[in-house]
Amino acid sequence: MQFTSTEVIVIIILATFIFLLAPLFLLIYIGVYNVRKKKDLEEKRNMQLEFESELLKTQIEVQEQTMQTIASDLHDNIGQLLSLTALTLSSINLEEPQKLDKKISESIDLVNSSIKELRGLAKLMNGEFIVQTGLGKAIKQEIDRLKKIGTYKIKVKNELLDFEISSPNKDLIVLRLLQEIINNIIKHAQASHIEIEVFIINDLLNLIVKDNGIGFDYEAAKTKNKGIGLSSIHNRIKMIDGKINIQSKQNNGTITKIEIPYP
Amino acid sequence: MISVVNIIIELSCLITAIIFLKKDGSLFSILTRGYLAIVVIIETIGFSMSKGFHLNNAWLYNIFIIFEAAYISYGLYAALNKLTNKALMICSIPIITFTITYIIEIYNHGFLKFNSLTINLESVVFVVVCLVYFYLLIKQKDPIDLNTNAQFWWVSGVLFYYFGSTIYNLFIYFLYQDFPKSYTILIYVMLILNLLLYSIWIYSYICNSRQRKLLLSSY
């Protein structure tokens, strides 16, 4: 096959064009890839910021919860005990020495009870640093708070008490999730029986909370997205790559199952 | 005429390099200015020898390709050195390839015939090293700022030039022997490649200056 000069020129021009296009495409590809990389990095940074701000919010909420418990404990328990002590002491009549012993001993008992309650409160105040002592203990304290209310029959299976591995950020979020679930039960469920299970299987932390309350329409609550803080629960679980499953029917109680990779 | 245009392009690149790299004391910047000055001098002498005195200038370009291979290899080394600790090993490949083929060619046909095989093979090796650079750049975790990354544009210029010159290298002897009338097209191809190479390099010097200003303003 014989080529003419013109054909050869056309071939050379075309070939040169193609040989220049190849590096051009490579540069365009690198440019596009670089832009995508920048975008990904930006997204990652934003996610990190969002996580940190949510964590801070969670921390504040846990603190608020602790302060609320302290306030109500001071008012309902210690305040009452001290008022009763004051009343007992003021009723002492020095002219009735036979009653003196009894009243003083009653006052001592009341003061001792107040001291015991105060110690309990001091422990609770430590709740802000609770995640440092371990999630199992933090959950126990939360359940103790619930027990104190005295309205509920509570069944607990807490396998995290002696668990030594921890994940501070996740612990704080799990504790707040439990607080939110318990608050929802107290506020809305009208339950008489609560069952709480916490355990770890295959590096997955399982938190199961069951109640025998009036239940609710989960799908409707999810779409309305208000009142019981479902969106905040979902957001926090998503942040730590967890899963949540809520089973609830009107007048048939609620089962909340949370699964979180742990630690 | 084409040769004159070529010299003007190279001279423009040299002037830009002097202006934009004057405050950059890195070895690469010093070598760049030196190399571009050599390019302009050799091209002017080569042009005068060939057009003015009708003399064989192949020996002159045989000397020039030593500078070319050394400068491009060092430039690639400087770029790769920021991405990998094997830069020296990678960039020793073009040096070794060049030295071996250069000696073989000189031994085979003497110094008065241009060492085309050396430059052809070197082009392929340079293209491969450029691709390695881009591969490592993509693999990097952090994105780069293309507006200030002088090295990226410098390597891009090298890739365009040596990849594009493959056509020139493939066709030159075939055309010279069988289609002498069509040979001129290759001269234009080379002119376009030179224009591309030096334009991209000029942009890289501008990026270098921007990079330095950014660095200074961040202190």
TrEMBL record, chain B:
Domain of life: Bacteria
Protein name: Histidine kinase N-terminal 7TM region domain-containing protein
Keyword Transferase set for record: no
Residue spans crossing the bilayer: 6-22, 34-53, 59-80, 87-107, 119-138, 150-176, 182-206
Annotated keywords: Membrane, Transmembrane, Transmembrane helix
Organism taxonomic ancestry: Bacteria, Pseudomonadati, Bacteroidota, Sphingobacteriia, Sphingobacteriales
Source organism (scientific name): Pedobacter boryungensis
